[in-house]
Amino acid sequence: MDATLAADLTRLPALLDAVRDASAEALAGLDTRPVVPPQDGPPEPRPLPAEATGAAAALDEFRARWEPRLSASAGPRYLGFVTGGATPAALAGDWLTAVHDQNSNSAMDGAGQHLERETVSWLRELFGLGAAHTGTFVSGATQSNTVGLAIAREWLGERLGVSPAQDGAAALGPVRVLSGAPHSSIAKALSVLGLGRSALVPVPTLPGREAVDPAALDRALADTPGPAVVVANAGTVNTVDFDDLRAVAALKDRHDFWLHTDAAFGAFAALSPAHAHLTEGLDASDSVCVDLHKWLNVPYDSAVQFTRRRDLQARVFSNAAAYLGPLGADPDLVHLTPENSHRLRALAAWFTLRAYGREGHREIVERDTACARALGDLLDRDPALRLLAPVRLNVVCFTLAQDPTPERLTALREAVAAEVFVTPTVLGGTPALRAAFSNWRTTPADVRRTAEALRTAAKEIA
């Protein structure tokens, strides 16, 4: 063994203590450090070290050279991308995930699989899904949507008497995927799956809404030859609008389609009695996407996908190799996602669910939604800014009251970056910004700081 590696092994407890101290210092400073530090370009690249210098030296260089450039994305005013943080329990679980370093894919070494299945059952209960739904952890909402649509692709083949998994997507012929306001990852998934971005057919939404018009969807399905796929939304990115999932599912009485629901963060509305009605009908979906590094507040990367047709899922993703063992009646995780290597992502989720339960996570959801409403009220009273949509759950979509050009909004976003991070968007043709609340640390004090920073910057820009 290399002498430096051996020395690091000998002093591993001290090294972990040093990392713990560095981590505690970084987390303690989240409230005071710039949310997005000013950047003057990347540091000068350095060559790969030829000689070993050890983990302590690597930690020192990281803290001096890279850590100051990192955003405070784990903190309470990083309001872009619907980003959560990591609860204390999730952080502990993630550390132990690396410690135990499981590839949780095979029944031959099955403890990780069993832990994941228990965690999935907790999540299924959390979101109000029935026992017919099975689930698997994946890396994020894009992968979750891709897996759900891959199963939908195989369902289309089943209806048409072919198997795209065996014969290729071309065996299906033209495919139509109908949706009102799909997330960009849906088109990406269709591209990856060989169905093509042009398969996505936009369906009119309700006036002034991002929610699909059920009557328009009914007509579009009537005009669709053969079976189709419908992508419903449980929480759109810009305005957190929800399709009427019960009305969409009811259309199955008249039309033949697979219902995939993108509930990346909207599924968490089920935890709040005041908002749970928004997710009614979610259980009727044939597949569901939920992102966990958003409102569950576990570290990147983590999501879960659910489906009623695990048999079709295994047909798509089964992996034939002697060292993996047979497929079996209860497929190993290697047969259920694109990944052969499957990090024990479930452990961080298991930890935070075990530590805080339904009520702890309900409190996070309700506090974040209250913070979003409070920010919306403050911005609505500011003459320099205006809301573009009602605050339905946890996202505030707003713009400049006068001349909201992309350039002026970029100037506003950059002016407040040290205090709060928001992301650009366009709603109804109007350039805008959005603030998404999903971090477990965010409090009303952060709302006041955010509103004041935006108010001051908007006045200067005006």
UniProtKB/TrEMBL annotation:
Report the cofactors.
pyridoxal 5'-phosphate
UniProt-listed Pfam families:
Pyridoxal_deC
Q: Which residues carry this modification: N6-(pyridoxal phosphate)lysine?
A: 294
Task: Output one GO MF annotation.
Answer: aromatic-L-amino-acid decarboxylase activity
Domain of life from the UniProt record: Bacteria
UniProt xrefs under Gene3D superfamilies: 3.90.1150.170, Aspartate Aminotransferase, domain 1, Type I PLP-dependent aspartate aminotransferase-like (Major domain)
Residue ranges, compositional bias (Pro residues): 35-48
Record keywords, A-Z? Decarboxylase, Lyase, Pyridoxal phosphate
Q: Which SUPFAM superfamilies does the entry link to?
A: PLP-dependent transferases
Biological process (GO), any one = carboxylic acid metabolic process
**Which parts of this chain are annotated as the region Disordered?**
29-53
- The family this protein is said to belong to: Belongs to the group II decarboxylase family.
Q: What is this protein called?
A: Amino acid decarboxylase
Q: Which organism is it from?
A: Streptomyces katrae
